[in-house]
């Protein structure tokens, strides 16, 4: 049996041939997809893309921040978007969430165009920005209520929806506490809560764990993984922590100077470095060059961020 999963767009969608004892996947140009085994999350290959990015470009005056970027993200995937500071990660995300208009190119989110169907795209997505997006002078409950109103959640549902989110994030006991008393990890969870109130199938998170200690980071990921497992939420996130990207993501993409320089599973990217002991950090340096445009190495940036965090 041959099944063709051609999606609404023309980006390569896999054709599937199911034989009695085996499953072989092919790309639409007949190249077989290899290395798919029972432990793989097959839906990454089987499901149509929920995000399709084509030649997406953003120029700010003379600077090309995002340069003809093309890639896709499968439904239910945890997708890590990596790159040094200034690589174009946040700008790409801001275009995908319709906060910034592309200079050229297009992207589809669940079949809707970011350029012309922006209102529909916004209904489908949740966004956790890089900068703090909660109000410290309000309680956790009040912050969520503000968002529930902004998202047009019907009045009769708001209370229940907020309680559900607080329960899900294990913040019930803190509902009435002023957010300025929260730890960094609790603030991040509350921001995730704000972004999932309207139950979006796609969640964008820009550096969701920056500045968090390892315990808080793990806790944030426990909840994000639950979201994916329970609701098949697609999770698109950026991080500077390579171990985190390696641990949680199905695939990673690496940006460098506005260009997408590598995309694939962590194991694939490592194997392309030809170093059998390569870590994801080694692969990152291999694809981006050890020296960054802004000066210093990736490792320096990571250290600087850690220092920034300590200084508060
Ligand atoms: N609104 C803006 N106006 C001008 N330049 C910008 C603007 N936003 C981002 N840039 C520039 O675009 C480049 C990419 O930035 P950004 O997408 O924030 O990178 P990243 O998130 O990967 O650190 C940087 O050189 C940045 O200075
Ligand atoms: Mg950024």
What are the key terms here?
4-stranded antiparallel β-sheet; 312 residues; binds adenosine-5'-diphosphate; alpha/beta; binds magnesium ion; 6-stranded mixed β-sheet; disordered N terminus
Q: What does this protein structure show overall?
A:
The chain is α/β, with parallel strands linked by helices and 312 residues long. Helix content is 36%, strand content 24%. The protein has helices at 43-46, 89-96, 118-124, 140-150, 155-168, 184-196, 214-231, 242-248, 266-271, 280-288, 298-311; strands at 2-4, 15-18, 23-26, 32-33, 49-60, 63-74, 78-82, 104-109, 112-113, 125-128, 202-205, 234-238, 251-256, 259-264. The strands form three sheets. It has a six-stranded mixed beta sheet with strand order 10-11-12-7-13-14, sandwiched between helices. Strands 1-2-3-4 form a four-stranded antiparallel beta sheet, with no helix packed on it. A four-stranded antiparallel beta sheet has the order 6-5-8-9. A hairpin with a 2-residue loop joins strand 13 (251-256) and strand 14 (259-264). Helix 6 packs parallel to helix 7 (214-231). The longest helix has 18 residues, at 214-231. The termini are far apart. The structure holds adenosine-5'-diphosphate and magnesium ion.
């Amino acid at each position: 049996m041959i099944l063709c999963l051609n999606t609404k767009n023309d980006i390569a969608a896999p054709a599937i041939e199911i034989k009695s004892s085996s499953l072989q996947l092919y790309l639409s140009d007949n190249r077989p997809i290899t290395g798919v085994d029972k432990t793989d999350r097959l839906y990454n290959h089987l499901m149509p893309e929920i995000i399709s990015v084509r030649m997406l470009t953003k120029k700010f005056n003379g600077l090309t921040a995002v340069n003809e970027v093309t890639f896709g993200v499968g439904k239910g995937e945890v997708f890590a978007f990596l790159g040094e500071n200034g690589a174009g990660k946040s700008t790409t995300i801001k275009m995908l969430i319709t906060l910034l208009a592309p200079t050229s190119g297009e992207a589809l989110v669940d079949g809707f165009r970011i350029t012309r169907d922006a209102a529909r795209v916004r209904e489908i997505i949740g966004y956790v920005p890089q900068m703090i997006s909660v109000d410290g002078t309000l309680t956790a409950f009040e912050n969520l209520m503000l968002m529930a109103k902004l998202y047009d959640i019907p009045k009769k549902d708001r209370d229940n929806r907020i309680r559900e989110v607080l329960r899900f994030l294990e913040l019930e006991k803190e509902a009435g506490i002023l957010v300025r008393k929260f730890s960094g990890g609790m603030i991040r969870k509350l921001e995730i809560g704000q972004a999932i109130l309207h139950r979006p199938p796609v969640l964008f998170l820009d550096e969701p764990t920056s500045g968090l200690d390892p315990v808080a980071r793990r806790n944030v990921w426990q909840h994000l993984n639950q979201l994916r497992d329970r609701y098949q939420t697609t999770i698109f996130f950026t991080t500077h922590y390579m171990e985190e990207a390696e641990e949680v993501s199905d695939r990673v993409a690496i940006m460098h100077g506005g260009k997408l320089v590598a995309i694939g599973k962590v194991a694939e990217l490592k194997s392309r470095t030809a170093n059998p002991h390569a870590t994801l950090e080694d692969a990152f340096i291999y694809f981006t060059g050890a020296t960054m445009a802004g000066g210093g190495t990736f490792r320096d940036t990571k250290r600087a961020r850690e220092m920034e965090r300590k200084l508060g």
